Amino acid sequence: MNSDQFGQETMFCSLLPGDIVIEILLRLPVKSLSRFKSVSKPFCSLIKNPNFISKHYAKITQETLPHILIMGHHHKTLEVTLRLINSLTIHRDVITPPLHFHVPFGMTSEKTRIVGSANGLVCLNLNNHNGVAIVIWNPAIKKFKPVPKSPYVSTLGKLTITDLGFGYNPRNNDYVIVRLLNVATSRRKYEVEIYTLSTNSWRKIMSDGRVLLVIRPFWKPMAPGMIAVKGVAYWVGVEVRNEEMCGVVVSLEMNSEELKFILPPIEHHGIVVDLREAITLRLFNLNETLALIYSTNLEKVDIWMNNGFDLWVLDDKIKTWSKRFKVEPIQGFLLESGFWENSKAMVAQERKEMCYDENGDYVYTKGETNLYLYDVIKGDFEIIENHELRAPFQGYSYLESLVDVNGGVGVTKEVDLSMFLEFDPLLF
């Protein structure tokens, strides 16, 4: 990139060549660049230029490890809260305390969750007593985009459980939401809808009826459901084969909108006698590679580390699985929210203490959740101090960016969410 891309007449500074000014700006944080938009029209034009934005984010990703954005419930107020953990480093014994990450959308319920995070954009499914809204939010530039209501809702009958996924499509430099809708009138029918940020509109894809939709359990609202990796959305389904119901991974190419079905790495683990078992195939994004583990715990659809497990990764070109590593058993820890730096898993340990009054009568149970990053290869723990959250958790990689949200709404402190609550709350 050079100043010629913005016109020969562009003048940033009388003392430095334009190319030097651009190289300096590429090294500045988003907060500083946002302020520099008001310096002059050439600065504003440069900083808002898509080429500059792409190069700035590429430089950040090359020089900075991703932060971890954690969503959970505050241990006292139970309000849905976000925390940001600073970039991980190789030579460090303890992670620095997480930063409070302000969500400017008012009070939300326990069903509020992160749909996904990509290139500095965070997609949220917001839920309060008035209804539900989906927003695409760039916290760094303080803008968000309310996603409009789909015109295709309820075209096949009564809709029941749904799931959402959010990701970046590198083939056309666009951001996509994929929504899955179960149809109550038929166990084999479901709708797939796609929203693209560039068009600010939805379109529908018909399923072929081969696979029954299986998503995150409704009693685990923060359990990972759909995973987006390199412009492909993945979720778990059930296919009938030889009169047996077998778990499969369903993939949707965001660009071609083509549905495909991928067998799990160990097929007998995918045989299903109860639909809840299919949910024990859990998907994760491991450094932009689809990863899968299998859990034998069916009671709460939690993944306890007590028995250990194998983690498999998918070669997205030839659609074959290979075992990345084996996680050895550790007692009393729960796997939460995926993996980072190739081998670090976020795990939680809950401690409960029964509290009594002065007469010895039981009053309440005090709960405390310790949150760690656990290196499954080295066996090392790094405690996440003062996160003030209780399980369950969500965790997504996050780095700030200048990426725009297609004419989004600016927000500094709080926004009246009721203006954007268009979706039927029964759908979420």
From TrEMBL:
Domain named F-box: residues: 10-60
Alphabetized Gene3D superfamilies for the sequence: 1.20.1280.50
Alphabetical list of SMART domains matching this protein: FBOX (SM00256)
Domain of life assignment: Eukaryota
Protein's recorded name: F-box domain-containing protein
